Amino acid sequence: MMSSYFVRRVKSGIPGFDELIEGGFPEGTTVLLTGGTGTGKTTFAAQFIYKGADEYGEPGVFVTLEERAKDLRREMRAFGWDFERLEKEGKVAIVDGVSSTVGLPSEERFVLEDRFNMDNFLRYIYRVVKAINAKRLVIDSIPSIAFRLEEERKIREVLLKLNTILLEMGVTTILTTEAPDPAHGKISRYGIEEFIARGVVILDLQERNIELKRYLLIRKMRETRHSMKKYPFEIGPTGVVVYPSGEIY
User: Fold this and answer.
1) Is the pTM of this model over 0.90?
2) DSSP letters of 211-231?
3) Has residue 208 got a pLDDT over 90?
4) Which residue, of 14, 117, 125, 152, has the greatest Cβ tally within 10 A?
């Protein structure tokens, strides 16, 4: 296998994280970001898209299936991230996958239709990626895709198809999912997500000294040497920061 020295890296935009994965994600890879509710998955993924477009010249697409695009923009302003500016500059596209589903009108430029069809979904995402020449993609989240399917059991087939399309597009992708019980090895809801992804990052909340602390674990990252330790991280005024030294608390 080719040495990781020759692998082109995509910077995550997360301070402290890239030094844990030899400088960044392998270009064109699909990474599963998994964790329980409130662990910071959406913020981590949004930071990946925002910093990529704003600092590294890599346009990105954020597909939001959990909340409306305008709500996402508002929440991310708390970190000083002006998504609207980047959208106007053609560097970021936010795909609203919520409004039509719940029967609300949307003024967004990119909106998924209310009748969910996986083939149409994939074609639409492909078109949006090509429209802005995106190098990065986030789909938030896999359980929301499964929820929209007529038969949730089809999720395995759907994820395999999704992975094939993502590899074809050549974008560096973060897929988010729920981890039912990471402490006991259940790191994804459907048990297949971690097998289609070339990288798996787990975000976790653990009780320490009568308060919850945030930890990150790189479970898998192809073409990359990485530690299997848990590293503390926090969500501060400027977003997610990882502490490779472990010195934070």
Assistant:
1) yes
2) EEEEEEEEEEETT-----SEE
3) no
4) 125
